[in-house]
From TrEMBL:
PANTHER family: CRISPR-ASSOCIATED ENDONUCLEASE CAS1, CRISPR-ASSOCIATED ENDONUCLEASE CAS1 1. Its cofactor is Mg(2+); Mn(2+). Homodimer, forms a heterotetramer with a Cas2 homodimer. The gene is cas1. This is CRISPR-associated endonuclease Cas1.
C-alpha cells in the first residue's frame, strides 16, 4: 500500500491576490483538475491548461469534473471558492478556506444581526443602496419590501420591452432547469453565477454566508442579501440580452456574459467595499488587516488578552 502523498508548501498569505483583484469565476466541465506547484492544471481529452489558483475567485465544477486532493488543498490555501454545480449550473455545494484570518468582520456581522435595532438599520442601508437619492427614513420593512418589489417588476418590464423578449413572470423549478422558458432559464443561470461570485467575496472576507439581515433561515441568507444589490444592474439585464440573441446554449452564453460584465464593472472590488461598509461603517478596513494571523483570549473583565501565554500565576477559577 502506498504511503501518503507529501503535502506541498502552503501559499504564503502576503503572496495571495486580494479578493477584490481576482478573476470572478471559471466554469469547468468534463475534465480533471490537479495541481502543479502553486498552479492548477485542467486536463481534458485535448489539452492541459495551467491556471494560477491565487487569481481565481470561484471555480465552478460542472458535470463530468474530477478534482484531486492536492488541487483542493491549493484552493483552500488560496481562499478560492470551489463550487460543484449540477446540470446547467443550478446548484451550489461548497466553498474553500477564507482569505481572512481575522474574525473582525464576522464578529461585527454576528453582533449586528443579533440585535433587532441594528439588524433593521443594516437592512434599511441595503435598501438605501438600491434607491440612491431617495429618503427612506422612517419607512418600515414592509414598505421597503413593497418598493423593492415594484422596482424589480419595473426592471423586468423595461428589459422585456428593450430586448423584445416576452415576459410573464418569474417561473422556474430548481430540480428541472429545462422546465422553464428561455428567459427564466437565462435568469436562473445569471443569478447562479452572481450568487457564486458574492459567496466568494463573503467567505473570502471571513463573513458568514448564513447570517442575513433581510433574508433569514438559510445557509446562504447573506449571499442573497448582497446579490440583491446587483441583480437589477447585472444579472437581469444580461439574461434578457442573451435570450434576445437566441443562442444555442443559453446557460453557457449567460455565464460568459456575466463573467465579462463582472470583470468590466469590477464587481468583486465593489462587493468587498459594500460588505465592509454595511458591517463596519465607522471604520476603514483594509484586507491586509483581515489577513493578520492573530489569536486572542477573551475575558469578560479584562477584554482581549494575548494568546500563547501561561496565566497560571494570575490565579485559576473553577
Amino acid at each position: 500500500m502506498a504511503g501518503p502523498t507529501p503535502s506541498k508548501r502552503p501559499v504564503e498569505l502576503p503572496a495571495l491576490t486580494r479578493v477584490s483583484d481576482r478573476i470572478s469565476f471559471l466554469y469547468l466541465e468534463r475534465c480533471t483538475v490537479h495541481r502543479d506547484q502553486n498552479a492548477l492544471t485542467v486536463t481534458d481529452k485535448d489539452s492541459v491548461v495551467h491556471v494560477p489558483a491565487a487569481s481565481i475567485g470561484t471555480l465552478l465544477f460542472g458535470p463530468g469534473t474530477r478534482v484531486t486532493h492536492q488541487a483542493m488543498s491549493l484552493l483552500a490555501d488560496c481562499g478560492a471558492t470551489a463550487v460543484w454545480v449540477g446540470e446547467k449550473g443550478v446548484r451550489y455545494y461548497a466553498h474553500g478556506r477564507s482569505l481572512a484570518r481575522s474574525s473582525r468582520l464576522l464578529e461585527a456581522q454576528a453582533r449586528l444581526v443579533s440585535n433587532r435595532q441594528s439588524r433593521v438599520a443594516v437592512a434599511r442601508l441595503m435598501y438605501e443602496m438600491r434607491f440612491p437619492g431617495e429618503d427612506l427614513e422612517g419607512t418600515t420593512m414592509q414598505q421597503l419590501r413593497g418598493r423593492e418589489g415594484a422596482r424589480v417588476k419595473r426592471v423586468y418590464r423595461e428589459q422585456s420591452e428593450k430586448w423584445k423578449v416576452n415576459w410573464e413572470r418569474r417561473d422556474y423549478r430548481p430540480d428541472d432547469f429545462n422546465a422553464s422558458d428561455d428567459i427564466n432559464q437565462a435568469l436562473t443561470a445569471a443569478h447562479t453565477c452572481l450568487y457564486g461570485i458574492v459567496h466568494t467575496v463573503i467567505v473570502s472576507l471571513g463573513c458568514s454566508p448564513g447570517l442575513g439581515f433581510v433574508h433569514s433561515g438559510h445557509d446562504k441568507s447573506f449571499v442573497y442579501d448582497i446579490a440583491d444589490l446587483y441583480k437589477a444592474e447585472i444579472s437581469i439585464p444580461l439574461a434578457f440580452e442573451v435570450t434576445a440573441s437566441m443562442p444555442a446554449d443559453i446557460a453557457s452564453s449567460v455565464r460568459q456574459a456575466v463573467r465579462d460584465a463582472v470583470f468590466e464593472s469590477r464587481l468583486l472590488t465593489r462587493c468587498s467595499v459594500d460588505i465592509q461598509k454595511l458591517l463596519l461603517p465607522d471604520f476603514e478596513v483594509e484586507e491586509n488587516d483581515l489577513s493578520q494571523d492573530v489569536v486572542s483570549i477573551w475575558d469578560y473583565q479584562q477584554g482581549m488578552l494575548a494568546s500563547g501565554s501561561n496565566y497560571s500565576e494570575v490565579g485559576e477559577t473553577s
